[in-house]
Write a structure and sequence with these properties.
The complex is a heterodimer of chains A (113) and B (319).
Chain A (H helix, E strand, L loop, with lengths): L1 H28 L3 H26 L4 H30 L9 H10 L2
Helix pairs in contact in A: 1-2, 2-3
Chain B lengths: L3 H21 L3 H26 L11 H18 L11 H4 L1 H12 L5 H9 L1 H22 L8 H14 L1 H24 L7 H19 L1 H7 L2 H24 L14 H50 L1
The chains are: A mainly alpha (113), B mainly alpha (319).
């Protein structure tokens, strides 16, 4: 049972850290503000959830689990809302997303038949 | 760096990072304070300040050579001064031989509070903490003296119409904030009253409480928030916090003990210590929360005033 818990928690922690790293890669590699924010905003919520579940499995029972659950619920509310507020502020201040223009699409199509 | 916004963001990130290395060094109380005060509320207040001053720094005209020389000389003198100090981590340093062992070994019998940091902060070093509270209170008074404006009572219908237009704009944020604010306030109370047993205390609780009010003011508009939170009441609370702290000391003085010797408060010395720590933490919480609210409302209210003036000027020009 103990090993099962350990393996399970390790799996959750690994998935969580992988998602964190992929969010970081997204911030560095994506072209404009909105896609960067999207990369980190989407992965971060799930990554936090995974890491917290992994920690809960590490520490079975007691008050710690309750506290971690509360943190989990708070993250589910706060993290998407923060991304929303950020995107909204950028949009209201006139930051235009980088869009692939129509001609570019045509060019891509003609060069790769 | 010329862009003040990124300077503020960097200082916030630095605050969070230093909070995490305080956790790694097992100083949970300090980490908590750093995360809530250093990374949280001071970043927020700085942001409010740059909405008034503008985002970029003015170009510097004077030559920085003299300042650099002064900094280098002072820095090298300070480093020279540290050479006399005991080696880092050495066991026979005065810090490790005088007070620290007494705090660690005897605080449970003398104060009876499981969290040693709280017993040092609120009981052994109550004078220092009193000084800190007075510093915060003075900052609040300074802000009030410099920035407070006399405002006419606002038109209720105007506030409501502004409120409705904001409601459509910030619907999601408002709904989430309405869900979160009660829990933030509850958490602040938990931190306030759990300070004896775990990391926490009046400073952190006050800041968290104030941040819930900031959230409300930012999403529901300053005028609505001003209707909910009475400014003169808040100023009264700030004064009551300091008064509560000081009068606990006076009570112990009147019953023949030293100033801030809480064992005078009750027949049982340990119960007296508990009561005293609870009361002064409450005083700290009152003062910190209300001074933060005063600072925020005066900064943001100033900004709002200048915006209104600009708006009125434009309207006048149109006419």
């Amino acid at each position: 049972m103990d090993t099962l818990m350990n393996i399970g928690s390790g799996l959750f922690l690994f998935i969580g850290s992988f998602l964190c790293v992929s969010g970081g890669v997204g911030i560095l590699r994506f072209p404009d503000f909105y896609t960067r924010m999207h990369a980190v905003g989407v992965t971060e919520t799930l990554a936090t959830a995974m890491i917290l579940i992994g920690l809960m499995l590490q520490n079975p029972g007691g008050l710690v689990d309750v506290k971690l659950t509360i943190i989990l619920l708070m993250t589910f509310f706060i993290s998407p809302t923060a991304s929303h507020a950020l995107a909204k502020a950028a949009m209201n201040n006139g930051l235009v997303p980088v869009l692939n223009k129509q001609e570019d699409n045509e060019k891509v199509k003609s060069s790769n038949p | 760096m010329k862009d003040l916004l990124s300077v503020i963001m960097l200082s916030g990130i630095y605050g969070l990072l230093s909070a995490s290395f305080f956790v790694a060094m097992d100083a949970v109380d300090v980490a908590f304070t750093e995360a809530s005060v250093g990374a949280g509320i001071s970043t927020l207040l700085m942001l409010v300040a740059i909405t008034m001053t503008g985002r970029s720094e003015h170009p510097v005209r004077h030559k920085p050579v003299l300042a650099l020389a002064v900094v280098i000389i002072t820095g090298s003198l300070l480093i020279y001064g540290t050479l006399d100090m005991p080696y880092f981590g050495s066991a026979d340093a005065p810090v490790h031989t005088h007070v620290a062992p007494r705090y660690i070994n005897d605080s449970m019998q003398e104060v009876g509070v499981p969290n040693i940091v709280t017993s040092v902060l609120a009981s052994y070093r109550a004078f220092d903490t009193f000084g800190e509270v007075i510093v915060i209170f003075t900052a609040g008074m300074g802000i009030l003296a410099l920035l407070s404006v006399v405002r006419r009572p606002e038109d209720v219908a105007k506030i409501d119409s502004l409120n409705d237009s904001m409601h459509e704009q910030h619907l999601i944020l408002r709904v989430v904030a309405k869900i979160l604010i009660p829990f933030i306030l509850l958490y602040a109370l938990y931190v306030q009253f759990h300070g004896d047993y775990g990391p926490g205390g009046g400073f952190q609780a006050g800041v968290i409480f104030a941040s819930a009010i900031f959230l409300y003011a930012m999403l529901f508009g300053m005028s609505t928030a001003r209707r909910v939170i009475n400014q003169s009441f808040i100023q009264l609370i700030a004064a009551i916090g300091v008064l509560l702290y000081g009068s606990v000391g006076v009570v112990s003085l009147l019953s023949g003990k030293n100033y801030f010797d809480y064992s005078a408060l009750s027949a049982d010395p340990i119960a007296g210590q508990h009561l005293g720590i609870l009361l002064i933490e409450l005083g700290v919480g009152f003062t910190v929360a209300s001074v933060m609210v005063i600072i925020f409302f005066n900064f943001a209210g100033r900004r709002e005033n200048s915006q209104n003036l600009e708006y009125n000027n434009k309207e006048n020009k149109k006419v």
